[in-house]
TrEMBL record:
Annotated keywords: mRNA processing, mRNA splicing, Nucleus, Spliceosome
GO cellular component: catalytic step 2 spliceosome; post-mRNA release spliceosomal complex; Prp19 complex
InterPro entries: mRNA_splic_SYF2
Protein name: Pre-mRNA-splicing factor SYF2
Family that this chain belongs to: Belongs to the SYF2 family.
Lineage of the species this protein comes from: Eukaryota, Fungi, Fungi incertae sedis, Mucoromycota, Mucoromycotina
Gene Ontology biological process terms from the UniProt entry: mRNA splicing, via spliceosome
SUBUNIT field: May be part of a spliceosome complex.
One Pfam family linked to the record: SYF2
Region (Disordered): 1-76, 203-223
Length: 258
């Protein structure tokens, strides 16, 4: 083999080795960079979690110090104090405090308020009420909120007059009686709006009934009992010891317990 060809092969081998080494160095550099980025992401994630847990602990600590009843009482006392101060200032200036208060409301709103109070006084229960009286009272309340469709009523009224004229009857006597079955006609169907209004009103009454129910509803979440006796026992334990173990339970839920 000529020496020139041998030199070319040696140079090619050296060049190939140098390229391979360069590729390996680039791969190792990329791997090192990726590992460094991964460590940085883990560090940031741990820092964010720690900061979030610290923030939650501080909020819970602040809430544990607050008492909603005390805040409501302070707000009520503050409102009463401001009212007394305004009343005293009005008396010092020789003004009528009650009349001055009415300046804050319009005549329309005052009339509506008085009408509302009058209706409330009429619906007030001043003695024993049986089921019939309670049902009648509820019926009157529902009818007071009911808004009839006068256009549909006038249309049906005209149809009744036309039918009476065709039958040779007196059109002036079109008042429905208790024995009238005109409302039960096959062609007389309620409108879609009336059906939706009835459904919404029924749903509203069901929600009010469930909200005002005095029955003690059992909690559906955080079930830590196996039978009724165990549930009562857990309630007794929680009544006396929950205030001491609240912080530990919160830490366990957050996953920050030591």
């Amino acid at each position: 083999m000529p020496p020139k060809r041998k030199n070319e092969e040696v140079e090619d081998t050296q060049e190939h080795d140098s390229k391979r080494l360069h590729t390996e160095e680039e791969s190792s550099t990329k791997l090192t960079d990726r590992l460094a980025k991964l460590k940085e992401l883990k560090r940031r994630r741990a820092t964010e979690v720690e900061q979030g847990n610290r923030r939650d602990r501080n909020l819970e600590f602040q809430r544990s110090k607050e008492n909603p009843r005390l805040e409501a009482r302070d707000a009520r006392k503050k409102a009463e104090a401001l009212k007394l101060l305004e009343k005293q200032e009005a008396e010092d200036k020789g003004e009528d405090y009650e009349r001055k208060q009415f300046w804050k409301y319009s005549a329309e709103s005052t009339a509506l308020w008085e009408e509302k109070m009058a209706k409330k006084a009429q619906r007030a229960n001043h003695g024993f009420t049986d089921h019939t009286q309670a049902a009648h009272k509820k019926y009157e309340r529902l009818m007071s909120d009911f808004k009839p469709d006068m256009s549909s009523y006038q249309e049906k009224r005209l149809q009744t007059i036309e039918r009476a004229i065709r039958n040779g009857e007196d059109p002036s006597d079109i008042v429905a009686t208790a024995n009238s079955l005109d409302y039960a006609d096959i062609d007389d169907k309620p409108s879609k709006e009336a059906i939706e209004r009835l459904a919404l009103e029924t749903k509203k009454q069901i929600e009010q009934r469930e909200t005002r129910s005095r029955e003690r509803k059992q909690p559906t979440d955080d079930i830590s009992w196996i039978n009724e006796k165990n549930r009562v026992f857990n309630q007794k334990i929680a009544r006396f010891y929950d205030k001491y173990t609240k912080e530990i339970r919160d830490n366990l839920e957050r996953g920050t317990a030591l």
